[in-house]
Amino acid sequence: MTSLTGNWAHRAWQSDVGYSFRTSPMAVVAAVIAFVCVFCAVFAGWVAPHNPMDLATLELSDAFLPPSWMEGGNPKYWLGTDDQGRDILSALMYGARISLLVGFASVALSVAAGVSLGLLAGFRGGWIDATLMRICDVMSSFPPILVALLIAGVGKAVFPDAGHWVALGVLVLSISMGQSGWVQYARTVRGVTLVERNKEYVQAARVTGVTPMRIMRRHVLPNVMGPVMVLATIQVATAIITEATLSFLGVGVPPTSPSLGTLIQVGNKFLFSGNWWITVFPGLVLVLIALSVNLLGDWLRDALNPRLR
């Protein structure tokens, strides 16, 4: 198993995509930044100097401490503390974990729904294609943020405890964001499928008696995943920003387990009182994550485009 994994990693590193990655300094820097952010978020329990989610360890006397390099700062809190005495650096790691979880979960839901419906519409055609595309037109006419707010509000009404349980809050946010993101994947996959379904390998599979479902799954799907991967990479950054927007508006996880958007919302209340670090540092981390993911998406789009090789 180790040998197979090593051989696969070696082939991937020596492939055209691997060469494109090695020769692109911007992609390497973006990958390093994204890896550091994801690593600190996933292993926040071990990396973070404090546990800002443990209310028993918070000291209100440590509230509003500036960063350690400023006058009045405490070396224990490198980036200062918020209004509840939580360490900003630790809160950023724990908050990024929730933001990344919601971002990846919502994109996964969008990909699953969009790819399935796009394959069906493009391969079958006819009234199925027309109906699904009209649904896409209707969904595209609504602002995604308003639809997400509506679904999140309904979800909180159905699950009143969503404001107290992190899992329910993450679930409501993921569904509310995922439902508006599948349209782009459906349109993209449909367009590629319309081209692929008329190619020789698909016609040959039909002649040999392969079922349409197997043709879509085994033959067409692998050939449409390139554009989907590029779109999904870029949409992760958009989903993280959307989650921060919803959390800033008060629709999200409970304040006791804040995401980056919730931290920005809390800090915004004290921005003009001189406590700028409470909102500036979460905002910078949000920009850093979104920028690194967007740069990786741009690189992947160019790397998978045969015309640019």
TrEMBL record:
The chain crosses the membrane at residues 27-48, 98-123, 135-159, 165-183, 220-241, 276-300. It is found in: Cell membrane. Keywords: Cell membrane, Membrane, Transmembrane, Transmembrane helix, Transport. It is a multi-pass membrane protein. InterPro entries: BP-dependent_transpt_permease, MetI-like, MetI-like_sf, OppC_N. Its main location: membrane. Residues 96-297 form the ABC transmembrane type-1 domain. Belongs to the binding-protein-dependent transport system permease family. This is ABC transporter permease. It comes from Polaromonas aquatica. The lineage of its organism: Bacteria, Pseudomonadati, Pseudomonadota, Betaproteobacteria, Burkholderiales.
